[in-house]
Amino acid sequence: MGQPSPARTQDQWWRSAVIYQVYVRSFADGDGDGTGDLAGVRARLPYLAELGVDALWLNPWYLSPLADGGYDVADYRVIDPAFGTLAEAEKLIAEARELGIRTLVDIVPNHVSDQHPWFRAALAAGPGSPERELFHFRPGRGDHGELPPNDWPSQFAGSAEPVWTRLPDGDWYLHLFTPEQPDLNWAHPAVRQEHEDVLRFWFERGVAGVRIDSAALLAKDPALPDHVEGREPHPYVDRDELHDIYRSWRAVADEYGGIFVGEVWLPDSERFARYLRPDELHTAFNFSFLSCPWDAGRLRTAIDETLAEHAPVGAPATWVLCNHDVTRTVTRYGRADTGFDFTAKAFGTPTDLALGTRRARAAALLSLALPGAVYVYQGEELGLPEAEIPRERIQDPMHHRSGGTDPGRDGCRVPLPWTADGPHAGFGGEPWLPQPPGWPAYAADRQAQDPASMLSLYREALRIRRARPGFGDGPLAWLPAPDGVLAFTRGNGPLCVVNLSASPAELPPHRQLLLTSGPLEADGRLPRDTAAWLRA
Q1: What pLDDT, in 10s, does the model give residues 403-459?
Q2: Positive or negative: CA dihedral 415, 419, 422, 426
Q3: Active-site residue identified among 161, 255, 305, 473
Q4: Contact present, 119 and 113 (Cβ < 8 Å)
Q5: Which of 120, 137, 263, 304 places its Cα 20 to 30 Å from the Cα of 525?
């Protein structure tokens, strides 16, 4: 188990780390019941070490009814039996560390499960009770309290369902997400104390960091007023009270040398940067890069703006192409609209997977060459496409709360293919989500033998990134380049060129070709939708 250190660690590994996201339920099934588990993750740790990642971020593995994929936590100190036990989690953390891989866990502070002991006690205690003060219970509006207390919208894109649920005793309770996820009252000292205790619980078990879900939503205007577009401060997004919460959390993390990464969706770069001040969060996810279309000008703008918003607070940028909530990269880049927007998701969108794969390979080299840390969602290193799940098999509440128009997020959560010839592509038992036809063709064992595969590209890129100075945190300088081409150097380190134009591009002068995402033209030019790393 980890022990608190008297002073904050000076090891700033997180500024340049490559962090692999594990969605446990879909990673690997060790006991054959069709659900990924900790035994499956532990068995695949050598694969992750060979891939070359620095850390794992595991999506919630706690006790949960799984109303929202584990983001409805019933007990932070208990591993859900579907995944394993606390003892197995401790072994996973220790075994990964022996392989040089750190572990980050997920905390969901905005809400808990409706099966959490606190909420069950609040329901039993009745209106006006101290137990209900831990949440947002209110009487309704209207002559008989039949109307919700306010008009706040659901945080699920495309959902018109209310964020209030009425109980038989007349009280309403707030849930920005599903009714099974009641929002906590962060103005209550017991809520703050409990979460600081949870942080210590996991830091003492050796985790290196914590990812904070929906990090900008915790604090609410105590009056819970109606939301008026454009009125500041917002009643529940990015409220100033949040920063005191995160300063307290930072003090806890510093006792253990731990780090935080926040899920912070904010359009205001100045307010975004406040979360990254030296006494608050260490890093935050970069959603502008993730959602940016495959367009040289817009990508350069996203990169420049990201670096500029982090610079005043000295925080490293993070880069990610995909996660457990968004369309997989090879699919997104193979569509007419190569950006990402939750509201634009639809069934049956035409996709050119060959084009998308070529672009995803180039994007991998682009993201891994940028300054800061990189997150890789499981299966991206295999080039997995988004799966179209039969409607009757979709489990994501985002689909159901949209009235069935939104395909939801299950398409990027399909269990991984490990062996081409094994049952269920080597995942384990019959998967909880169906694997589409052709899934074995993406299997890790097959790709490991193919030097031209996506897996081989990622392994070689991560090997070079570790071995050569100049990658990770540090300066970036743009080079002159034709329209549609991105070219930059990393200090005295490597040079990266990405061709997003319609025709092959000349490579700048260089001493060595380190790696390309695809073959060069016969005359040495860089083909369209291809990236190269060069030694200048």
Answers
A1: 888 899 999 999 999 999 999 999 999 999 999 999 999 999 999 999 999 999 999
A2: negative
A3: 255
A4: yes
A5: 304
Percent above pLDDT 90 for the chain: 89
Helical packing angle, 454-467 and 353-369, nearest 10°: 10
Q: What is the C-alpha separation between 22 and 377, in angstroms, rounded?
A: 7
How many helices and strands, by DSSP H and E, does the chain display?
15, 18
CA separation for the pair 478, 482 (Å, rounded) = 12
Between 98 and 162, where is the model more confident?
Answer: 98
Q: Are 321 and 340 in contact (CB under 8 A)?
A: no
Q: Which residues, at least 6 apart from 177, have a Cβ–Cβ distance to it below 8 Å?
A: 68, 71, 110, 111, 154, 155, 156
Residue type for position 442: Y
Q: How far apart are CA 372 and CA 282, in angstroms?
A: 12
First-to-last CA distance in the chain? 45
DSSP 393: G
The amino acid at residue 404 is G
Q: Which neighbouring-strand residues pair with 79?
A: 62
Q: Residue 155 above 80 pLDDT?
A: no
CA 277, CA 105: separation in Å to the nearest integer?
22
Among the listed residues 232, 69, 235, the one whose alpha carbon sits nearest the alpha carbon of residue 163:
235
Residue 196 annotated among the catalytic residues of the structure = no
The fraction of the chain above a pLDDT of 70, given in percent, is: 97
Residue of 232, 295, 241, 300 lying closest to 268 (CA atoms): 232
Which residues share a beta bridge with 311?
none
Structure tokens at 251: 């003090």
Q: Please give the structure tokens belonging to residue 158.
A: 């495309």
**What is the dihedral angle through the alpha carbons of 244, 250, 251, 257, rounded to the nearest 10 degrees?**
180
pLDDT range class, residue 214, cuts 50, 70, 90: very high
Counting every residue written for the chain, the total comes to 536
Encoding tokens for residue 29?
Answer: 């099934």
Catalytic residue chosen out of the listed positions 37, 68, 213, 238: 213
Task: Spell out the residues 6+ positions from residue 492 whose beta carbon is closer than 8 angstroms to its own.
Answer: 469, 470
Q: What is the spatial distance between Cα 160 and Cα 123, in angstroms, rounded to a whole number?
A: 25
Pull the structure tokens for residue 459: 């392994």
Rounded CA-CA distance 381/360 in Å is 10
> DSSP characters for 322-382?
--TTS--HHHHTTSSS-S--GGG--TT----HHHHHHHHHHHHHHHHHSSSEEEEETTGGG
Alpha-carbon distance values, 382 to 338, 361, 395, 450, 530 (Å): 20, 10, 24, 12, 18
321: amino acid identity, one letter: L
